[in-house]
Amino acid sequence: MRGTRDEGRGMRVPRPCPCDTNRAPMLQLDTYTLPNGLRVVLNEDHSAPLVAVNLWYHVGSKNERPGRTGFAHLFEHMLFSGSEHVGNNEHFRYVQSVGGVLNGTTFFDRTNYFETLPSNYLALGLWLESDRMGYFLPALTQEKLDIQREVVKEERRQRYDNVPYGTAFERLLNLGYDPDYSYHWPTIGSMEDLGAASLDDIREFFATWYRPDNATLTLIGDFVPKEARALVEQYFGPLPSGGPFPQFNLERRPLNGERREVFPSPVQLPRVYRLYHFPKMGHPDWIAADLLSSVLSGDKASRLEKALVLEQQIATDVAAYVLPTEATGIFMMQATANEGVAIEDVEKAIDAEIARIAGEGVTADELTRAKNRAEVEYAHQIENYDSRADLIGMMSTYFNDPSLVHTWLDPYRAATGDDLQRVARQYLVAENRVTSLFVPESV
Amino acid sequence: MTIDRTIAPQPGPPRPYHFPRVARRTLDNGLRLLVAENHNAPLVSVRSLVRSGADYDTPELAGLASLTAELLDEGAGTRDAVRLAEDLGLLGASLGSGADWDASYISVDSLSRTFADSFAIFADVNRQPLLPQSSLERVQSERLMELLQQRDEPASIAGKRFSNLIYGNGTYGNTVIGNPESVARITVDDVRNFYETHYVPNHGSIVIAGDVNAEAALDTASRFFADWPARELPPRPEIAPKTFESSRIYLIDRPTAVQSEIRIGHIGIARSTEDYFALSVMNALLGGVFNSRINLNLREKHGYTYGARSMFAFRRQAGPFVVSAPVRNEVTRESVTEVLAELRRIRTGDVETVELEDTKNYLMGSFPSTVQSAGDIAGRLLDMELYDLPTDYFDRYRENIGAISKQDVEHVAQKYIDPESVIIVIVGNASQIREPLGTLGMPIHELDIEGMAIG
What we know:
heterodimer, A: alpha+beta, Cytochrome Bc1 Complex, Chain A, domain 1, 2 domains, five-stranded mixed β-sheet, 16 helices, 18% strand, disordered N terminus, B: alpha+beta, 14 strands
């Protein structure tokens, strides 16, 4: 919402699991569901006088229709513009004026809203979040919509249209998915669709998706569980659930061979962007891909960085990573050509490194380092209340099981070198990818 | 039980907060060691700093401090760059290095169970970096490519021009990463000289935060660094800012721009100012946080921008005060007008009590949420060391913010903000915005991307 958090592009995947089982206590989770369908997860922790209030709604740009793209994200902005008992911009003021920090983000599959407050203000956070879940529509006006629509258009200009390579992810999605498939467009949406959003569209979107039976509320921090339960019941208990959810066909049609484009744009250096299709997040092959991405990039000992940047010096930077997506899996790869190097030569060098892994596999040390990285990143995620709450919200929303935070890394630990080799052979092939080559306009 | 939704719930009694206790030791060679225990996660963050950064760069060799820092992980002791990364990876540790205006930094984050081995590598990187010629050439080339790419990034163009107009070509007038000419000029001897001269214990601090025993960590650090010889340092170059009698606009044409990148401001004040707390409150109210006047005005009232903000860049010497906003082409002039109006208004003492209290409460209350992790705490310890903050600084922070009055806000606004002599830099589509900007009654100077006058 503020631009400090990404909508998900390039976001590192959270990788849960206690990394030092001798020392790290298992998180104590108290999970239950209110009669109206709201799932609640409490994690009492008194290490700081804070409380994280975190809501994940199971709605994102995936739940938009062609011609009405950008709604979920525009909606995220609208939810900060007040509800029946909270004035326009008062949400921010209430939270910040007591020393809270807050934001919201939107991605393909979910939208989250969160504030970290001094723990004596838990009730304030619950009041604010429940008011916009239950009493948003009475406060909605055309004027608020018009202002936020302009803000989002500026966001699109600032982050996509006015910066080099800004539209790369959007182009890959356009190439990678058929126009009627929900990952065809990016979360920010198109300028045209943003312009077309009407008040009725917004009302309908809210009524369809923003309701207790489509959300997980996670509270972490310095509270007494019995009191927190009572407060949650008071603020969220009376809110009604809704009717059936619209259905989306999320069966992706396979590519018939590689889809490629060359896109001349105002950039100085050519850059290759690739999207490889994978099974969705959590599938064993996706987990192997996550580990494989660490073998390929991330430090100077990683395959692509070592070969392309350090040794051959044909690229200035490389990156490989998976995205946390629910409908279908995404493995991203990108590399910038050094001056005077043809981007096709960079592609060849990438393919040679992939072929080497497909042929010879990864070393035991490489596998260990990849697993270590996953464990450390997880430890960092659970260290802070706010990122820990996001992790729990994600497990609940995508996998319907908050307790997955205890076991999520088990398959990472169990993965073998053979798994990584097989995944490289099976998925990191031309027929399974789309490629966008950003090249300087003059070339 | 039903609740009254029409009023915000009242808070419970506030819970106490204390910054972690800091154990300190100063070695005979002058190196200062600080350790703060935090056992929330099995992680340790280690940071070192030397109090030399890009402020020591000469205009000819701008970028030297950051290039030196960047080369530190290209091998150290008996390990080359790849071996270093491999061994750290096997320990579950990660290494970083870099420089800003005030200092150069090295960091290692590790698991607590691999702290000792990770710290040994960290010590090598601090004391025995290889700084190889071959790596310099590669890193230099990467830096040149980075600078080349920045030519297409409007925010980066605007920032560079703004600094250069205020500080000229001296300290703070280039960017930390230098410019193409200066970077190309840097030799491995320059890098090694910079390292030998500035990476000395009497000029540095090491901080450790996280899941360690404080006394044991101090002993470990002492063992690795006690025999590091001290050395005299050259005097620090001083800034030579320009002063302007009146406001003026510098316009840099970017014909493809769909937004105007605006920078408005002038020189600010050093971190050591006695007005630091008053300035923090005043700036937060003016443009430092989401609910500040400038952002509410430009974004929430007008929808001109995705976000606008103001900041005092607090450094060892006086950094800039700057308002930044990317806005759509058609409202460039209006945005400048609104920002200037906010700068004038904050000087009049027109501050609501509730507005002041909200801002102070935010600064006081949000502090604990910014120091949850070992890395967060290490960062605060670095601040303490870099700016010689008193040992009780973070415990007294809330009290110091709480004491700021309306008069203080008005006083520092008048003292440190001068809306009648600002530099306004705009990177945007000149053919669309030139004419409207002309009606502001300020001289407009058109520059190319390198800052050379056009016409």
